[in-house]
Amino acid sequence: MSREPGVAATGGPITDAAVRSRSAVVRELRGGYVVEDVLVGPAGPGEVLVRVQACGLCHTDAIARSGLGGAGFFPAVLGHEGAGVVVAVGPGVEHLAPGTTVVLSFDSCGRCAPCRAGRPSYCVEFLERNIGGRGIDDRVAIRDAGGAPLTSRWFGQSSFGEFAIATARNCVPVEDDLPPEILAPLGCGFLTGAGTVLVELDLRAGETLAVFGVGAVGLSAILAAKARGAAEIVAVDVQPARLAVAERLGATRVVDGTAPDLVQAVRAGTSGLDATFDTTGRASVMAAAVESLGMGGRSALCAATDELTVRPQALVGRSLTYVREGSADPHTLIPELVRMWRAGAFPVESLVRTYGLDELDEAERDAASGAVVKPVILLPAAARPPGGPGVAAGPALS
Ligand SMILES: [Zn+2]
Ligand SMILES: [Zn+2]
Questions:
Q1: What does the pLDDT read at residue 11?
Q2: For the whole model, what pTM was predicted?
C-alpha cells in the first residue's frame, strides 16, 4: 500500500495524518458534483475524523450550489447529513473514541447563552460555523490532489465523501446496528421536521396541525405529529403524489396547495388550527399558515427566502417564529428519533432512496422534481455483511 509522508493509506492505521478520500467537489457556482481524490484532515483540536457511510442530500446543499455560498465559496465539498464511524480524534477530544458510530449534525459553540440553554441551532456563531463553510477559524479540513484548499467546514462536516472532519460537538454517538441511510438524514432534514413539532411547537395529544409543503421536512413533521397523538394533521402541497405519501404516513386530511382560498380550505369550517408549519418559504403560503391559526395558535416557518407580509390582527393571541433545525438539540433529539424508529413510530425508510457518490447530480434532480423525498448517498464503508442490519429490517409501514 503506497504511503506518502503525512498521508495515511485508506484502510490503514490512522493517527494524526491526512487520509485519501474520494469526495464530491463542486468546483464553481452552479457547477456539478465531480468525484475527486482529495486529502482529508488530520483532525485538529476538538475535531474528529469520520469514515462516512452515508450522507443525505438536503435542500440547503442545492441552495449553496446554486448561489447561497456565492462565488468565493467554491471550490467546495458540500454534504451535511453525514453518518459514519469515528476513525481518529484530535487533541482535546475525550468523549469520542475511534470505532464509535456517529450522526453528524450542525455545529455550535457550546458556550454562548442559546447553546447553554439547550438551543444550539440559535448559537451566536451558527452562520459562521455552518453556512460559511470555513468554520470559525477559517481552517482547511480538505485539500484537493494538488494541495489547494477546498471549502470544507460546511455545517461543520462537508461529508459528501469517504472521509470527513467533524467537530466533537456535532458528532452524536448512536448504536452501531442502525442502517446508515436512516441515520444520515436525522442530522438535518428529519431533525428539522420532527424537531419543529416535538420541540418548538411542542404539539400535544389532541391538538391540530397543518403542514404546508410535504417534502422531507414536512413529512417528518407529520410523522412526529402522529407520534404525539395529534387529533388532526392537515397536509398541504401542490404535488398529488406527495399528498398521497402524507396520507399514508399519518395526515388525516390533504389540501391542494393551489386551492383558490387556501386558508378556508385548511380551516375547513373550524375556528382555526392549534399549530401550523410552513416549509415552502413562499410569501403567500407563509401568510396562509399564519391566517389558518385559531386563537392561541402558534406557527413556525423554516425556509423563507421571500418577504413575509402578515396582517397584525392575524397575530392577536397567536405566535409566529422562524425555526432553525427544528429548535432541536441534536444530542437529545437524534437518540429520541432513533428510539422512535426502532418502535416503528418514525418510519422514514419509505422516504429514502440511495445513490452512489457519482450520482449526486441525479439525486439533486430527483429531489427537485419531487420524484424522491430524501436522496441519501451511500459510501463504500456502508457495505454490510449479508444478513446484517438494513432498511429491510426496519419496521413496516402500517
Ligand atoms: Zn453557541
Ligand atoms: Zn439541511
A1: 45
A2: 0.92
